[in-house]
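re: ur question from earlier - yeah i can do the single chain one, its not a big deal. heres the input i used so u can compare w yours
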Amino acid sequence: RLDLRTGRYETFATGAPAALVFAGMAFDPQTGKLFAAAFPDPDRVAFSFDTRTRRTARLYRNVVAELYQTASVRRPDGTVSHLMYNPDIGVLHWDPQEETLTPALIGERLLGLELPYSNGQSGIFRVITSPDGAIRMPGGWYDPAADALVTGPEPEEELTWFARRGSRAWGVSVEGADARIGVWDLDTGRVEMIATIADGTIHGVNLTADGDVLSVSLYGVIRRHDGTTGRECFSRPTPTTAVGRVDCLRRIDRRRLLGTPFITQRFWELDLVTGDGVDRGRAAAGPGEVLQTWRIGTMVYLAAYSRAELTAYDPDQPVCFGTNPRVVAQAPTGMRPIAAADDGRHLFFSSSHHYGHLGGVLTRYDTDSGEAVHHDDPLPDLTIASLVRDPASGILLAGTTIHADCGSAPPKAARARLARIDPDSLAVVQQAELPDGVESVRVVGLIDADRVLCLATLPGAEVPRWFTVSSGKLTVPDAAQWQPLPRAAERVVATGRPGRFVLVTEGRHELWDLAGEQSLRVLADEPDSYLAHVEDDDLFLATGSEIILYEGVLVP
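and the output i got, formated as tokens:
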């Protein structure tokens, strides 16, 4: 609870496990109750909270299989309909007086939508209603009282509709990095696009009492547009005060370092001599963060979450997103780039499919020719979660997981696999199964010219063990031969040199020769570090407020 006068927050326990709660929480003024649903794995949990007694009125568990809440609509009879999605579109009809919850599934049954319904689609994140309570859905009007589609006005262009006044409705769609605002004349069906909002989002727009469109962009710019003409009436940036957690570090040259912060599309550069930094703005058009980076020659390449976009950045040219960086490839069915490799010319990255879908897509990009090639689902029902290139053969060695992104779909495979992948065709040329119940396996780096270090967790265990496989022939050793990591290491970072790995235990960064199974030396002791990045002979660490460079510590 936020007090708008004092700025103070209060928090209240609901009895529900911690989880991400998305849009759509509803407040019932008659009972003073709040309702929201979430997905604390493995259950789906909804709660009704009485704000007057400050106690939970009721918890609901697994009423529907759908994972994510998107919107809520108050009905004429005082009940509230909550929209959920993935795998289907579900509607939870909440009666705050009787404290009951009645589910209905409508995506496949009524709307004819292909399941699982993904967040890559729009239409249910903001909704409008008719005077009699029907909800506008993708492709029709849904009447919660009748649990059926009913006739109603249809637009010439479908948007995500977020407000209605009389015979007009306002909608939004996102194209590239910007949002478009349209007005639908419900009498004629005509849709007029009236405004474009730079860095706008589907969630960040609303209609004022005066009929203006008020928006807040991804980067905190508040704007007001005339709701009829689209004329911009007001614009003001808000200060940015948060320090973003670092996802990626990549050296531009000996003096400059590039970094990408969590859950934003921006990137920054740091002068390693002066310590001065500068925000460079967008690195990708989608709403997600950069998760993989490469330096090829003088160019830096970045792959970003939400659309599996690859962008190219020339640090020596003026910065203007769209031109520099510019999007050079996009995996058509991809969402989150989670594994990367390169051969000095070609970039390889694996992306998960969108939420609710198993598997993923593998991409190769030629930095000389600009050609991009994609292979969808090279290992059906498995996602490639790690990649290591064998320099002798050029073959890609892949580790996989049986899980969908964020556990958003139940797995079908019983075990993870290792795979050898041809770098030209992106075809799988050999597979090797892990023991039953091993859900994920990671390839980390070369132990020597012929062997690769792998990490996997056995069923019932809490920490991974390590083993090696031949890069030329994948044969997984018996699990009894797998070994615990030295020093009970929490993280293992490849150095790019066969056999040499940085093992991290409670902030202690130690260089190991795992081929000889011996510690070589302690590189750093930083208990607050959460990211270790190795490049050339240097070790970079990120803490909550610092980037720390240990220069030359990896020199043999």
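The two ends are 56 Å apart (CA to CA). not sure if urs matches, ping me
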